[in-house]
């Protein structure tokens, strides 16, 4: 009898690939500090609910605004002079540019069939040079290894996205993915070497669902320069809090084994409830009101440094004299 030819297994469809990643409540990403003595950290954040959900990018923008210095006006003028080709830049335009803060996405690997529609992006401060930030050696070397030579200034973040044109979601990117011999790095280097990778941000946006958002960095205007007064903050045995102009930051130390499934955070316009591993850590009526859709939380750090960070977006830009009423 003629032996039967083994049946071929059907190739996974796009929807089968998507099912591996869709439905996750959180995603992991990597923080690469510019300070070489500070370790890289695996962080975790809530999964965006829609493609238009910009909370992750906004949280990175806030980070760059907080840790970055002021932009050097001369450097900005020099950069603009090249783009403007000799046209004069008036003071109002310059002042507006100096107030802006943005997140630049450096595409290291793009979502194509060979990568199972997974892309890797590095998120950096778009004004790193103008702020005279230090070179990030580790991030720069990683970009070079992926075939995208980039001098990264200041802190950087690494993330992964699944995008098959039908479905889009953020996917875990862990410390294991930062290895110099990781599969994605080898593929990215090969693709970028052939010139098939995106050559501009316009190309990138045409190829993938990730977004670059230019957001105004709200700063006080006019008035004489005075030494800033430290706004009220506080701490208890369970948490600490501080504030900026439009946000409240709450930090809670958690056990090393704490994962996102152990955390419950309920945002309401005028109250908050935080539970970690079944224990109520923070609950009550807030001093002021917040925008619930602009408030987020994330886990970061390892061992004794493991922490839950909560950011509350103030509904009104007023100074809170306490966290709870």
Feature tags:
single chain, 325 residues, alpha+beta, 12-stranded antiparallel sheet, 3-stranded antiparallel sheet, 7 helices, 15 strands, globular
Please explain how this structure is put together.
- There is one protein chain.
- This protein has 325 residues and is an alpha+beta fold.
- It has 7 helices and 15 strands.
- The strands form 2 sheets. Strands 1, 2, 3, 4, 5, 6, 7, 8, 9, 10, 14 and 15 form a 12-stranded antiparallel sheet that branches. A 3-stranded antiparallel sheet has the order 11-12-13, with no helix packed on it.
- The N and C termini lie far apart (85 Å).
- About 9% of the residues have low confidence.
| Amino- and carboxy-terminal Cα gap | 85 Å
Give me the Rg, rounded.
Answer: 22 Å
Largest sheet: 12 strands, antiparallel
Please report the total strand number as a whole number. 15
Low-pLDDT ranges: 199-228
Structural class: alpha+beta
Helix residue percentage: 10-25%
Shape: globular
Strand residue content:
25-35%
What is the gist of this entry?
The chain has 7 helices and 15 strands.
């Amino acid at each position: 009898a003629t032996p039967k030819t083994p049946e071929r297994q059907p190739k996974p469809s796009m929807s089968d690939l998507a099912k591996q990643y869709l439905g996750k409540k959180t995603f992991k990403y990597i923080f690469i500090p510019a300070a070489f003595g500070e370790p890289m950290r695996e962080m975790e954040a809530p999964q965006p609910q829609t493609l238009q959900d910009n909370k992750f990018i906004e949280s990175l923008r806030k980070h760059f605004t907080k840790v970055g210095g002021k932009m050097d006006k001369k450097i900005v003028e020099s950069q603009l002079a090249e783009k403007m080709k000799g046209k004069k830049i008036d003071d109002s335009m310059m002042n507006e540019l100096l107030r802006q803060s943005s997140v630049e996405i450096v595409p290291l690997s793009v979502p194509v069939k060979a990568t199972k529609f997974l892309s890797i992006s590095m998120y950096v401060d778009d004004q790193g040079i103008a702020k005279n930030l230090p070179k990030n050696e580790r991030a720069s070397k990683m970009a070079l290894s992926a075939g995208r030579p980039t001098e990264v200034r200041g802190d950087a973040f690494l993330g992964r996205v699944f995008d098959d044109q039908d479905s889009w979601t953020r996917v875990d990117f862990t410390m294991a993915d930062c290895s110099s011999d990781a599969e994605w790095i080898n593929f990215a280097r090969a693709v970028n070497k052939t010139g098939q990778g995106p050559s501009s941000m316009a190309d990138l946006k045409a190829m993938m669902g990730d977004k670059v958002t230019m957001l105004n960095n709200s700063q006080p205007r006019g008035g004489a320069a005075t030494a800033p007064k430290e706004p009220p903050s506080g701490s208890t045995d369970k948490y600490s809090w501080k504030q900026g102009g439009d946000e409240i930051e709450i930090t809670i130390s958690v056990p090393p084994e704490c994962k996102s499934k152990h955390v419950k955070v309920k945002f309401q316009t005028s109250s908050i409830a935080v539970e970690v591993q079944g224990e109520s850590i923070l609950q009550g009526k807030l001093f002021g009101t917040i925008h619930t859709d602009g408030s987020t939380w994330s886990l970061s750090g390892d061992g004794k440094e493991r922490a839950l960070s909560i950011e509350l977006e103030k509904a009104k830009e007023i100074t809170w004299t306490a966290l709870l009423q």
